[in-house]
Amino acid sequence: MNLFSEFPVLPFSAWEAQAQKELKGADLVSKLHWQTPDGFEIGAFFADLPAPAWEQYLTNSIIAATEALGRSWRNRLLIEWQEERAANAQALDMLNRNVNEIAFDVTGKAKKVQLEVLLQEIMLPFCAVSWQLNANEATDFVQRYLAYASDKGYALGSLSGRIDLHDASGDVRLALSEMVQGTSLHTIVINTAGETISKRWAKALVEAYRLLQIAPQAGLLLPHVAVCHTLGNSYFAEIAGMRAFRLLFAEMATEFVSTYSPANLHIAACTGFEGNPQDPYWNMISNTTQAMAAIVGGCNTLEVTPHQKGFEPVDSFGQRIAINVSNILAEEAYFGKQIDPAAGSYYIEQLTEKMLEAIWNNFQQYMQRV
């Protein structure tokens, strides 16, 4: 049996005519098209269209950024402050559960942290270690951390992770990026924020552009830039937004470094809660679909927020569920087997085109306000 002869490919006009018939004369656009929160119109069905020019470019970049067959991303877990030995025990336990990025929140306590105790038996070249702290603690702490790694005999080039600062000025972040040259640490961490997905990404693009403009050497700064995005429940829009931003960031970055590729950008995604505050178990479902969107969209790091957070103390069960969302998607749902599963999806391709336009238009508007 030949499916193509049994079911010939129909032109878009044929689908449109059939839809019009089913609507019994009602207007196709008013009945089946809808406006997104980002301000553009989406149709109800899509037909075979030529792949956009950027599609293969984006897929090739994802392939270039992949260290092994399929897709890989870091499974990140945040450990909030506690006594060093307890935090170390928890970190080691999670690293044995396929977590490959540990983040320690040392806000307000960075000067007192005993790194020898906190990082005992954690092999820095084999996992990413990130830190959350106040901006006024950063310089001293990063110096101590680099010295600790050097004393342990670790090559600086083997250090990875990010430095998340609270209330940091551009000057502080630029100074830190100079301190960590030769490492893979991200010190220019840009967080998305805004009313819609396109506005969040546009504001992140503006912030990155302004920092690159004032950097003495933008080429040395770019490897230390990471963009952190808190996800929502608009599944396809989140996929399209992340893909569009990666393309636009690379286009912007080539103004400073001509060889910059979309593969060079590190995007960290974190699940967010939009569910019923009385039902944290709703967040388990929300976490899963948001994580799926982040992976398909091309994130480099995925942090699944424990479903209990904000409602009750996070326990070992909540943490285990959170890290296993990423593990199950990678190992059992086989999200790690496909490099770019969104490639060839008519709907996602057209939604990405719309997002590219919306993000760029918002970016231009924000830049004109300065």
Describe the structure.
The chain has about 375 residues and is α/β, with parallel strands linked by helices. The chain contains 14 helices and eleven strands. The chain has a nine-stranded parallel β-sheet with strand order 7-6-5-4-3-11-10-9-8. Strands 1-2 form a two-stranded antiparallel ribbon. It starts with a helix and ends with a helix. The mean pLDDT is about 90.
Quick summary:
The chain has 370 residues and is α/β, with parallel strands linked by helices. It contains 14 helices and eleven strands.
Strand order of the largest sheet: 7-6-5-4-3-11-10-9-8
Output the number of helix runs: 14
Largest sheet: 9 strands, parallel
CATH secondary-structure class: Alpha Beta
What keywords describe this structure?
370 residues, alpha/beta, 47% helix, two-stranded antiparallel ribbon, nine-stranded parallel sheet, TIM Barrel
Per-chain topology:
Layout: H1 3-6, H2 12-22, H3 28-32, E1 34-35, E2 41-42, H4 53-65, E3 74-79, H5 84-95, E4 101-105, H6 115-118, E5 128-134, H7 135-151, E6 160-166, H8 170-179, E7 184-186, E8 188-191, H9 197-214, H10 218-221, E9 225-230, H11 235-253, E10 266-270, H12 280-297, E11 301-303, H13 316-331, H14 346-368
